[in-house]
Specification:
Layout lengths: L2 E12 L2 E12 L3 E5 L6 H8 L7 E6 L2 E2 L5 H7 L1 E4 L11 H7 L9 H10 L1 H5 L10 H13 L5 E5 L7 H16 L3 E5 L3 H7 L2 E6 L2 E7 H5 L2 H7 L9 H5 L22 H10 L1
Parallel strand pairs: 3-8, 3-9, 6-7, 7-8
Antiparallel strand pairs: 1-2, 1-4, 4-5, 9-10
Length: 279
């Protein structure tokens, strides 16, 4: 499979705090690749750096054969990078359909085909197309965030914590939809706190700790890896974050945990997340 996305030795800082300390990740065309790790490991920062929301200190990002390290974020969307952010980030006062159409904002061509596909993939959105996004449940908002990202016809879809705050039944549904999106030809880079679920659907995986990649392997191997099982598959990933504070890293990580369901009300948690990261 040809390589679609290559992140090479990237470093990212928040002020003087090093959030990423030389991360290298590759994603081949047609894969689902997942990044797992405790809160503050650098997972969200990695996605934001790929999509152009965070600047590199050093290192490079290549996408579809070109260096995009200094490319503006909106041009990365046009190049084929879509993102459904942590906290969903939907527009609460807009209808479902208006939210979806915002995903195609940068496109100059007709997006009716993608709109029909979004409604086919998410029948719930079709039922509620004229409902305000902010009045939807957390699971519906997550569907809307993914559907909006797909409206740009991305070659790679970046998904940040798609199961956050969702009931177990909805989590299963979201992961099934991610697999279907991949089957339809979209490459996926997934950041997910629910490591067990993520590793079950991914082809390959990277384990991040305090801004570094500490393991990279086929996802099936990591499911059976005793260290990974002990640290990340025993329930709450938050337990794995405890050694971070003892390692000399700042206890107040740029990526902080959000309470489950905090994003359900309006999608405003994404801006709160940014405010927390900028501290």
């Amino acid at each position: 499979m040809p390589m679609l996305l290559e992140i090479e030795d990237i470093h990212v800082h928040y002020g003087k705090i090093a959030a990423l300390k030389g991360i290298s990740v590759s994603v081949n065309e047609g894969e689902i690749v997942t990044l797992i790790g405790a809160n503050g490991a650098g997972k969200t920062t990695t996605l934001k750096t790929i999509s152009g929301l965070r600047n590199l200190t050093s290192g490079s990002i290549r996408f579809d054969g070109r260096d995009i390290s200094r490319l503006a974020g909106h041009k990365r969307v046009s190049a084929g990078i879509g993102q459904a952010p942590e906290g969903r980030g939907i527009f609460p006062g807009m209808t479902v359909e208006e939210n979806l159409l915002m995903g195609a904002y940068a496109r100059k061509d007709d997006s009716s085909k993608e709109l029909a596909e979004a409604y086919e993939l998410f029948p719930r959105l079709a039922e509620r197309k004229s409902q305000a996004g902010g009045t939807m449940s957390g699971g519906e908002q997550q569907m809307l965030a993914i559907g909006r990202a797909l409206m740009a016809r991305p070659k790679v879809l970046l998904l940040d914590e798609p199961s956050m705050g969702l009931a177990p039944m909805l989590v299963q549904q979201i992961f099934s939809i991610i697999q279907e999106i991949n089957r339809r030809g979209t490459t996926v880079l997934l950041v997910e706190q629910n490591a067990q679920q993520a590793l079950q659907i991914a082809h390959r995986a990277y384990v991040l700790e305090t801004g570094r990649v500490v393991k990279a392997a086929p996802a099936s191997e990591l499911l059976d890896d005793p260290q990974v099982r002990a640290a990340y598959l025993g329930g709450d990933l938050g337990a794995a974050a405890e050694p971070e504070a003892a390692s000399g890293e700042p206890a107040a990580s740029p990526e902080r945990a959000e309470p489950a369901g905090a994003a359900d009300a309006s999608g405003a948690a994404e801006s709160a997340d940014d405010a927390g990261e900028a501290k």
